Amino acid sequence: MKKGFILLVFLSSILYAAGLTFQPLDGDEDSQSYQFYLNNKPVAVIKVNDSGWVTYVKGRIPNGKALYANDKGLKVAVWPFSSGLANGAYQEYSVEGDVTKIINYQAGQRQGVYKEFWEEGVPHIVANYSKGRLHGRYKEYDEEGKRIREDEYVNGVVHQNLYFLKNLYKENQE
């Protein structure tokens, strides 16, 4: 197990050797802003709204994987960029190093599978995006992995509520 950990640390240091990092800035109600640095020098600011759309860009983000580490140096998130846009799988990590969120991006928009996990690695949310909008199945699970919600989205609009706490309601009636 130690060999795997050492290899992971070595590969991580190669990935971030370019010195591309980011930090969240104070956001407003509808969006979150991020400051990007290259070798500790500010190079860009972006603003992302609640739907995952980049709504403001100042500067240029270099190609590569941007690392966000907490004040103790632990990896909190990795965000891949190419041509100045988010491209690939954005990932957030717990203090233990487990993946807690995966958001796939293509040309700066959410595209494909979106996943969030509870602390124990149990899925919390599994959804699909197309061109930055929810599209397809959206599933939500409780901490034990029991499905509590399932909807079908078409271009960001709920098309059909397939399952919403029905089993919990039935259980409470018995």
Question: Would you kindly provide a written description of the structure presented here, covering whatever features stand out?
Answer:
By secondary structure, the protein is mainly β. About 15% of the residues lie in helices and about 60% in strands. It is built from 2 helices and 14 strands; from the N terminus they run H-E-E-E-E-E-E-E-E-E-E-E-E-E-E-H. It has helices at about 1-15, 165-174; strands at about 20-30, 30-40, 40-50, 55-60, 65-70, 75-80, 85, 90-95, 100-105, 110-115, 125-130, 135-140, 145-155, 155-165. The strands form 2 sheets. Strands 5, 6, 7, 8, 9, 10, 11, 12, 13 and 14 form a 10-stranded antiparallel sheet that branches. The longest helix is centred in the first third of the chain and has 14 residues, at about 1-15. The radius of gyration is 18 Å and the shape is globular.
Instruction: Give start-end ranges of low-pLDDT stretches.
Output: 1-17
**Helix fraction bin:** 10-25%
Element string (H = helix, E = strand)? HEEEEEEEEEEEEEEH
Q: Would you count the extended β strands for me?
A: 14
Q: Helical element count? A: 2
Quote the beta fraction.
over 45%
Radius of gyration based on Cα positions: 18 Å
Given the helix and strand composition, which structural class is it? Answer: mainly beta
Distance between the termini: 48 Å
Describe the main β-sheet briefly: 10 strands, antiparallel
The averaged pLDDT comes out at 80
Coarse shape: globular
